[in-house]
């Protein structure tokens, strides 16, 4: 894209995009480490994920400040306007993604207190991986202003939703058969729900990217996992 | 022809231009512009210096007739009537299609006379009482009445720049025009005076078809409902103002409004 006549404007846009790239990278790492901590029952790693979330929150505040400054001082138009509005909305969503990862990490010690093997835990890493990749791709799509990649992220949300329904059933069955694990399984259910929400939020980011890249908004779709009532 | 537009035609256009070309001697300043201007919205013409927006504006009330080397081709209609037809009375046309210029240019006469001059030569007032009504109504519509009602016989040139410009708008209004053309009406004014003119434009909308040429894109965004972007004599894009400023279709429009031009 051609440069602005006013160079400082380009510098501010670059800084904005740089901050969002960093924030996205940190959110991805938080998801990955939270899942790893859960799998390995690694309390130290879990505590790191919780601590690192502060930086994600700080970036959100920094981006908000910068966006307000750009709107006030540069009066951005057209694709510039769409970029800064998308940036403002994306950071609040990525901040939520960070919170979900933090919430997963906070549950690790509660699940790790029990040495018994919880079979359903095995389902969660792949689910976490799909959601993490959605976050990764949504932010890559923002960096590249790639509407097609954003659409591909949105389509993948059903994979996470299906995962959630499957984990839900498995955990319910497991709890019926092993009533002593109900406390841990309840935490795992929240972990699964958190991952499912991360997928939804990655989709929200992708929708904003699509808007910023094309100027068109996508039609409203059904959000959240569709929980089938058990017979 | 690279001209591409959205929403080219509108319902019940007040003025329509079709394939209008303007030449200054050998040089072509306007390369075949077609556009409709309606009563219900303010239309802004934007574009870099030399793009032809002012030249095109001036074709709408034949102000280019005063430039010896200028030649206009194509068709421009006012209520369906060709304004370049030999039968068209140019003086009458300019009463119907009034103009406000970049620099406020009140006559070196009293405030009252500035307004009364046009109605008098067009025979719009039957007598003094009639004229008083026209002067008050015009100054009220121009948002100037309260500021000048006690000194109507002071010189118009003694007013501030912003007041002078509103006086010029009042002067244009006084002859009951149908269309008002404004050629950068605020570029010589401070922000407060500019805001007053913009508010006035907003109030006059619907009563007159208003076309404004402006270098200030924020102003185009604030006052207009339709925006036309001109570049090198072409009408590059014409559309709903909010669309033009959030999602322009043409690369040249985007580069210009985002400050990437040149």
TrEMBL record, chain A:
GO biological process: intracellular phosphate ion homeostasis; negative regulation of phosphate metabolic process; phosphate ion transport
InterPro entries, per database record: PhoU, PhoU-like_sf, PhoU_dom
Keyword Cytoplasm attributed: yes
Subcellular location as annotated: Cytoplasm
Residue span, PhoU domain: 20-108, 125-209
UniProt GO cellular component terms: cytoplasm
Function: Plays a role in the regulation of phosphate uptake.
NCBIfam families for the chain: phoU_full
Family: Belongs to the PhoU family.
Name recorded for this polypeptide: Phosphate-specific transport system accessory protein PhoU
Organism: Sphingobium limneticum
Classification lineage: Bacteria, Pseudomonadati, Pseudomonadota, Alphaproteobacteria, Sphingomonadales
